[in-house]
Amino acid sequence: MNKRFFTIGMAGHIDHGKTSLTKALTNVDTDRLKEEKERQISIELGYAPLYDDGEIQISVIDVPGHERFIRQMIAGVAGIDLVVLVVAADEGVMPQTREHLEILGFLGIKCGIVAITKIDRVEEEFIELVKDDILQELIGTVFEHSPFVLVDSLSKKGIDELKHLIIKMLKGMEPRDANGPFRLPIDQVFTVKGQGTVVRGTVYEGTVEEGQPLIILPKGIEVRARQIQVHYQPAERAFAGQRAAINLSGVSKEELERGDVLVSSEHFTVTKTIDVAIRIVDDLKYEVKQRMPIKCHIGTAEVMGRIIFFDRNELKEENGEVLCQLRLDEEIVAKRGDRFILRRPSPQETIGGGWVIDPNGKKHRFGMKTIEELEKKKEGTPKERVTKVLTEEISAGFKELMKKTSLDEETLKHVLEDKSFVFYNGKEYTLASIVNAVEEEIYSHLKEFHAASPMKQGLNKAQLLQMLQKTYPRTLIEHVLEKGVESGVFGRREQFVFLGEFLPHVPENWQKRVETMLDELKTDGLKVRYLTDYIADAGIPDNLVDDLKKYLEEQGFVVRLNDQYYWHSDHFKEAFKRLKEHTGTQFEIGDAKKALNLSRKYMIPFLERLDALGLTKRVENKRIWQ
């Protein structure tokens, strides 16, 4: 799969024009609820398709701006790749704008654009003042060096410029990981009449297919993906980075809620205790005290819990990361590296945010020894370090892995014995999940090729390599192909590669005409017309002629004498047999003409074909049987 999928978010203060801007970009009104229309504010997350071509597909999330809807805002932002920070020209930076900026930073969003909206409402000089104000607020944030675009959603000023900038920036970004297990944190659950339960969310990682068995965590409910929709259109698959709605069988709407996670593997961790690294906001109003109640927003879940420190009893100011633990009241699904936000339940404020060091947190003693252990854990287990390098590099040699993981030789050797890693071509390692992904891509390309060209025996190997080498090393592709041939998943004949179960065949709607054509060719014996004449008489279209001629020859239905004349294979065998019976160990053209009673226009191509097949050898004017 070469296409990449991204989701962008609109963030900013209430009534600064996020929904209007989304509509101007996409022609979709994301305020769906009646109360949203009445109150003219976004309560739920709104989604719309922004752009789709052969290279990338982009969706937009319109994030609610009102402080009461901070949970929905976090749920939306947690799954996006780029943020458009919306600031109204007639109001400038507001308190919620600052809070959103902090949340975006804690969630690891690295790519942003600042859109100054409602520019038709103010004088040009005032826009410059607003811009300076925003620049001051952005110092030290992820948006510090972000580009600015001036827009007005009603007059459409700047809309095309903003859209082109979004596309350009995303085309330069790496997509989310579509390999490995599938994970979708659920942010909406609803029912469709006659269809049953539907969940919606952003695919964090992996790929999901129609009919695939899945699991709802942390509840452990087994379900199946009956149908998939992307942008309200049916889809066979949904990939990391896409917004998807999935119709599930085996579960009712009442059993599910926002915060549940739809996964393809039981290997995801369900936990209530996580070791974390956090940063706090710059202007924290109240101290964060040991074992203080907190509200943790992770993925689309909102869970109460307590914060546990191991090197202090309170936290007021801190520039760097603080290593600590969250003990939650309810189970969540978490993975190392997942981002989260911490909020104070009362009085409500954002405390900070961070990332998960270890989702399987254990009880630790208070003291610096625990901090030292957490520091080591923060660097990652040896297996996690190797996995991270190979995820980024696709493949690497042993020495390169030692250098990039900082692991000693013995530790690295032990880690690489794990089945998660694959050693190939005598010198390189890769991930088993990447090998599976390469095999799936080869299978997909071949399946697509066979559907388009059913009469061809296979795809040229060089062409297949060219398709995949943009993503994977050639040596890895060849390794996967070789293993696939050994297992029968793929087949190879000369330079052609094909699916193991595939047999070349004439498209069903032309089979009878091809049979009629072959019958006429056989009826004419050795004194045939041009093969293209038979094909034309049968009413077979010109665009199939080349493939059909090659197919008939490769499958042994006909034998080519030259580019024009072909004999039915039965007659070719008969002519060969008769010629051999009526000549000695060697013969001349005159002997052949007597034996077969053929003119030179057929005889010469026939004899030359015998030479080409190695059945005879020409020596001056004579031919010798081989």
TrEMBL record:
TM helices/strands, residue ranges: none
Alphabetized SUPFAM superfamilies for the sequence: EF-Tu/eEF-1alpha/eIF2-gamma C-terminal domain, P-loop containing nucleoside triphosphate hydrolases, Translation proteins, Winged helix' DNA-binding domain
Tr-type G domain segment(s): 3-176
Entry superkingdom: Bacteria
The keyword Protein biosynthesis belongs to this UniProt entry's keyword annotation: yes
Subcellular location: Cytoplasm
InterPro entries referenced in this protein's UniProt entry, alphabetically: Beta-barrel_SelB, EF-Tu_GTPase, EFTu-like_2, Elong_fac_SelB-wing-hlx_typ-2, P-loop_NTPase, SelB_WHD4, Small_GTP-bd, T_Tr_GTP-bd_dom
Keywords: Cytoplasm, Elongation factor, GTP-binding, Nucleotide-binding, Protein biosynthesis
Record's keyword annotation contains Cytoplasm: yes
Coiled coil segments of this chain: none
GO BP terms, alphabetized: selenocysteine incorporation
GO cellular component, one term: cytoplasm
GO MF annotation list: GTP binding; GTPase activity; RNA binding; translation elongation factor activity
NCBIfam families: selB (TIGR00475), small_GTP (TIGR00231)
Biological role stated in the UniProt entry: Translation factor necessary for the incorporation of selenocysteine into proteins. It probably replaces EF-Tu for the insertion of selenocysteine directed by the UGA codon. SelB binds GTP and GDP.
Protein name: Selenocysteine-specific elongation factor
